[in-house]
Amino acid sequence: MPYRNGNYAAFYVDEPFYEGNLGSYSAHDFCYYQMLRMWKGGDSSFPFNDSHMKNYNVRDGSNWEHTLKPRLRERLRNSKNIILFLSSCTKASVALTEEIKYGILSQGLPVIVVYPEFNPILVDGAFDNRVYGLWDRLPAFGDNMDLVPTLHIPMTRERIRTALSSPNYMVQSMTTAGCYRL
């Protein structure tokens, strides 16, 4: 059984992806993942343990079936949860759909959903209607999120710190499946 101590960050990057110029560093949702890494780099107590740094790096031109997909799955098997960044740029790419389906359906990983463009994410105690629209952009998530605990939060450092520190959103000790807000 794998030692599940990583946080798997899932985000949309255009396909096909080209490494030239700025590559993924200029991609809208990738920047939010980089923010987590920056917060961790500036504060070793920040509870982000990057699953993407735990096995071989992949090249963007690598074969999907033989290299990329198996490495993504290995990273997910070694993770305790998924941090999903949902924004107006998010699309249901092959890779993001695979990450969410494999993470939820095969690994039963809880999902911490971060909405970088909305703070707050609630209006009069209910989700902002634009949040529902983001779920529709990624059907693999919207159709399966009720199978695991999903915590929905705006992108603030303290909310992410609280979410990542909560045993309720770790596969080893997670709470019951359902939709939660912080």
Architecture overview:
- It is a single chain.
- This protein has 182 residues and is an alpha/beta fold.
- It has a single domain (6-181), classed as Rossmann fold (3-Layer(aba) Sandwich), CATH 3.40.50.
- The protein is built from six helices and seven strands; from the N terminus they run E-H-H-E-H-E-E-E-H-H-E-H-E.
- The strands form two sheets. It has a five-stranded parallel beta sheet, sandwiched between helices. A two-stranded antiparallel ribbon has the order 4-5.
- Helix 3 (94-106) links the parallel strand 2 and strand 3 (111-115).
- Helix 2 (64-77) packs across helix 3 (94-106).
- The longest helix has 14 residues, at 64-77.
- The chain is globular, with a radius of gyration of 15 Å.
- The chain starts with 5 loop residues before the first strand and ends with a strand.
- Residues 17-25 have low confidence and may be disordered.
Which helices and strands, and how do they pair?
Blueprint: E1 6-10, H1 30-42, H2 64-77, E2 79-85, H3 94-106, E3 111-115, E4 122-123, E5 126-127, H4 129-137, H5 139-142, E6 149-154, H6 157-165, E7 178-181
Parallel strand pairs: 1-2, 2-3, 3-6, 6-7
Antiparallel strand pairs: 4-5
Helix pairs in contact: 2-3
